[in-house]
């Protein structure tokens, strides 16, 4: 892909996991990231960086297209790619130029629409959907008869265009998506050149299925076993009573929900869950529905009531993660750091559930250099009622008549909608993975064990 130059401008500042940049503050983070990128990328990272580079090109274009609203951007985060605004039309009305002229399979813009409209949220769900779409593309694809190397053709004609479309036209990819994409590109590169395409396709489909099964599904079950049967009953060196334990969760996490359901329904633990939520996504409502339907006693509060609850009731905090940095810091939905820091100040154990495929060899120290911007319009609408879990707001709810309703015309008003924040490793008691419960300081060791031949190579 010809996106190397664009990556230096915008691609390094999204949630791409590829590369080993070190964030050292708003002013010097980008420069430090470039220095630490040299020599630290392993083979998987090099494979995924092609997609990230292609993503940077489109993100630059996105910034240029939104120049009319440049004066409404918060300058501290002006380096981040601007969110793409979903087109309010049915997928069937997508112009033929998006699918035919660029040779995109219809499944690619269909999934991109789900990403763009937040119909798919969560690292696992987004990654799983991406891999399932790649499996569909492989089943329907046949390399040209005159191709010299089908591996190059699959990479440049099938994988890269799809990944670039999702990243540049819809939404920056998550760390989990970047790692999975790197895995798939490496699997293609490792195929024998003289294989028949049908045989090569079966190998790739089996690899995709194994990745989903082992790295996502099995990992979730293993984390549930480690955290549910060990942490809930014996964490912090003390026995937890069969009744009376109060677990606090924030937003929605697939692995945390499974952990709590297994602990209650399979292990027979008796506990109460406090679901903390925040605008504008209000993902905690989905968590509340899942747990309450399973018969688990729940309390639902917004983030502004957190300090009182943390001092009065909570015994443990379980949090999900979008990515786990090599220095032990946790990238997750914005608000997670607030929960973890407040729990840590009140000496309440904080456990983070994170599959190992979300581990990134990048070092990050703050939430400014690398983040994702959400649509500022979502912050402007103060009505908290969602039409459906995809977070599409009803048009009739958008006219509240306040100063926020016409915020773009207010010369001294800017809105900021950050998607993620970074929780420092000092605020985390333990990280629960499929290989066990680890202290944050052991993340670098785990990453080295997972990639013994390529992780943390010395810089040139």
Could you explain the architecture of this structure?
The protein is an alpha/beta fold and 460 residues long. It has 15 helices and ten strands. The chain has helices at 4-9, 29-37, 43-65, 96-101, 107-116, 123-140, 150-170, 175-189, 197-234, 254-266, 284-293, 306-312, 336-345, 376-380, 443-450; strands at residues 245-250, 271-277, 298-302, 316-320, 323-324, 330-333, 350-353, 420-423, 430-433, 436-438. The strands form two sheets. The chain has a seven-stranded mixed β-sheet, with helices on both faces. α11 (284-293) links the parallel β2 (271-277) and β3 (298-302). The protein is globular, with a radius of gyration of 22 Å.
Give the strand line-up of the largest sheet: 3-2-1-4-7-9-10
The class by helix and strand makeup works out as: alpha/beta
How large a portion of the residues is in β-strands, by DSSP E? 5-15%
**Tally of contiguous helical segments:** 15
Largest sheet: 7 strands, mixed
Low-confidence residue ranges: 1-67, 88-101, 230-241, 387-398, 454-460
End-to-end gap:
24 Å
Shape: globular
């Amino acid at each position: 892909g010809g996106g190397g130059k664009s990556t230096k401008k915008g691609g390094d500042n999204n949630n791409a996991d590829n590369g080993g940049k070190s964030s050292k503050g708003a002013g010097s983070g980008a420069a430090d990231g470039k220095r630490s990128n040299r020599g630290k990328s392993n083979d998987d990272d090099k494979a995924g960086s092609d997609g990230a580079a292609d993503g940077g090109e489109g993100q630059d274009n996105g910034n240029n297209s939104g120049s009319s609203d440049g004066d409404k951007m918060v300058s501290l985060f002006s380096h981040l790619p601007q969110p793409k605004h979903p087109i309010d039309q049915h997928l069937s009305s997508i112009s033929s130029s998006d699918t035919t002229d660029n040779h995109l399979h219809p499944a690619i813009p269909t999934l991109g629409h789900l990403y763009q409209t937040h119909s798919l949220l969560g690292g696992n769900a987004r990654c799983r959907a991406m891999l399932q779409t790649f499996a569909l593309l492989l089943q329907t694809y046949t390399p040209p008869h005159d191709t010299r190397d089908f591996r190059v053709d699959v990479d440049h004609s099938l994988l890269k265009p799809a990944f670039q479309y999702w990243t540049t036209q819809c939404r920056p990819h998550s760390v989990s998506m970047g790692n999975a994409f790197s895995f798939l590109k490496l699997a293609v590169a490792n195929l024998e050149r003289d294989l028949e395409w049908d045989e090569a396709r079966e190998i790739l489909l089996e690899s995709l299925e194994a990745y989903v099964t082992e790295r996502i599904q099995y990992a979730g079950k293993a984390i549930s076993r480690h955290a549910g049967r060990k942490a809930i009953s014996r964490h912090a060196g003390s026995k937890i009573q069969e009744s009376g334990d109060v677990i606090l969760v924030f937003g929605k996490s697939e692995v945390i929900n499974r952990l709590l359901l297994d602990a209650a329904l399979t292990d027979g633990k008796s506990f109460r869950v406090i679901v903390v939520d925040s605008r504008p996504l209000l993902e905690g409502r989905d968590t509340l529905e899942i747990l309450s339907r399973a018969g688990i006693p729940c309390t639902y509060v917004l983030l502004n009531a957190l300090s009182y609850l943390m001092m009065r009731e909570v015994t443990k905090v379980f949090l999900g993660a979008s990515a786990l940095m090599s220095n032990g810091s946790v990238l997750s939905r914005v608000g997670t750091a607030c929960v973890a820091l407040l729990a840590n100040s009140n000496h309440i154990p904080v456990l983070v559930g994170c599959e190992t495929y979300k581990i990134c060899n990048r070092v990050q120290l703050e939430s400014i250099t690398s983040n994702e911007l959400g649509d500022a319009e979502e912050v402007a609408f103060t009505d908290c009622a969602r039409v459906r879990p995809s977070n599409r707001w009803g048009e009739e709810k958008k006219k509240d008549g306040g100063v926020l309703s016409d915020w773009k015309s207010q010369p001294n008003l800017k809105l900021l909608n950050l998607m993620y924040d970074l929780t420092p490793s000092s605020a985390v008691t333990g990280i629960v993975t499929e290989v066990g419960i680890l202290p944050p300081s052991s993340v670098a060791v785990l990453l080295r064990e997972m990639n013994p031949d390529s992780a943390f190579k010395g810089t040139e």
